[in-house]
């Protein structure tokens, strides 16, 4: 059993616990994450995450509304909200709070069930992150899950780890692709590997680089390699000045 297996096992527990059983919520006007990225030369998705997967930080309480407004004002183009409650200490309420910034909101979780997608729609997300490696391991059809997201008015960012996954993902109806520099089996990070894949795999869909991005130089490397945007959590939350870090990653300072 590797770390990804443990994540999947916890996802099953979370689903069975009733955590995602939301009642009917207020209807939301959806924003397009894809259009947001396509309208800019380079985008930053800032992440609300209570706990780092490798223990670099842990916050019991986060004012998600304030953080989202701060992210937007500093130049973030979208917000990712990690909702997984056991490992990452996320909460579904942060999704609605993030909407206050008026920029697209990505629902981030280890999605293994349609119930989680319904929860994303009801909590106010605009897009859902799906992980190709999780689907491969569980023999879940990406097409079925992507189609279900679309039926609820949600866009899909399909996350990949290697070149083969990227090539297969490019053939799906996912709205955006992600390349994760972190190996979910070991949690080791290598943005150089991701940069190499970005140079080799071409897609008409916007590609977002995820994990391990610490500095403006990291962001520039991925941008020059073909990423349309980056998704960053830890570097922002561990920075002495979050606004300055966002501006650095966007190349604004």
Describe the structure.
- The chain has 253 residues and is of the alpha/beta class.
- The protein has a single domain, classed as TIM Barrel, CATH 3.20.20.70.
- Helices cover 41% and strands 15% of the residues.
- The protein has 12 helices and 8 strands.
- It has helices spanning 3-16, 33-38, 64-74, 93-98, 114-123, 132-138, 142-151, 163-169, 191-200, 216-225, 234-237, 242-250, and strands at 43-48, 78-82, 105-108, 127-131, 155-160, 176-180, 207-210, 229-232.
- Strands 1-2-3-4-5-6-7-8 form an 8-stranded parallel β-barrel, surrounded by 8 helices.
- The chain is globular, with a radius of gyration of 16 Å.
CATH architecture: Alpha-Beta Barrel
β content, as a range?
15-25%
* Rg value: 16 Å
Number of folding domains? 1
CATH topology: TIM Barrel
Number of strands: 8
Sheet with the most strands, sense and barrel status: 8 strands, parallel, barrel
Poorly predicted segments: none
Strand order of the largest sheet: 1-2-3-4-5-6-7-8
The name of the CATH superfamily reads Aldolase class I
Tell me the span between the first and last alpha carbons: 44 Å
| Coarse shape | globular
Q: Strand pairing plus helix content: what structural class? A: alpha/beta
- Helix/strand order, N-terminal first: HHEHEHEHEHHEHEHEHEHH
Helix content bin: 40-55%
Number of helices: 12
Per CATH, the class reads Alpha Beta
- Summarize model confidence as the mean pLDDT: 93
């Amino acid at each position: 059993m590797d770390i990804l297996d443990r994540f999947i096992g916890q996802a099953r527990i979370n689903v069975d616990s009733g955590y995602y059983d939301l009642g009917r919520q207020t209807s939301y006007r959806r924003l397009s994450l894809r259009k947001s990225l396509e309208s800019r030369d380079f985008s930053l998705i800032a992440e609300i995450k209570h706990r780092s997967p490798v223990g670099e930080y842990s916050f019991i309480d986060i004012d998600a509304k304030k953080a989202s407004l701060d992210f937007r004002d500093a130049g973030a183009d979208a917000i990712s909200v990690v909702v997984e409650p056991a490992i990452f200490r996320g909460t579904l309420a942060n999704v609605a709070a993030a909407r206050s910034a008026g920029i697209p909101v990505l629902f981030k979780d280890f999605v293994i069930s349609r119930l989680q997608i319904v929860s994303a729609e009801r909590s106010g997300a605009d897009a859902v992150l799906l992980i190709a490696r999780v689907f491969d391991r569980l023999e879940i059809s990406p097409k079925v899950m992507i189609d279900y997201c679309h039926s609820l008015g949600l866009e899909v960012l399909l996350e990949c780890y290697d070149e083969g996954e990227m090539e297969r993902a490019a053939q799906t109806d996912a709205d955006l692709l992600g390349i994760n520099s972190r190996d979910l089996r070991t949690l080791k990070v290598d943005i150089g590997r991701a940069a190499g894949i970005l140079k080799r795999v071409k897609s008409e869909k916007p590609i977002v680089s995820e994990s391990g991005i610490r500095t403006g130089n990291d962001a520039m490397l991925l941008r020059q390699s073909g990423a349309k945007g980056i998704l960053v959590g830890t570097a922002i939350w561990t920075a002495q000045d979050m606004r300055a870090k966002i501006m650095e990653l966007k190349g604004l300072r």
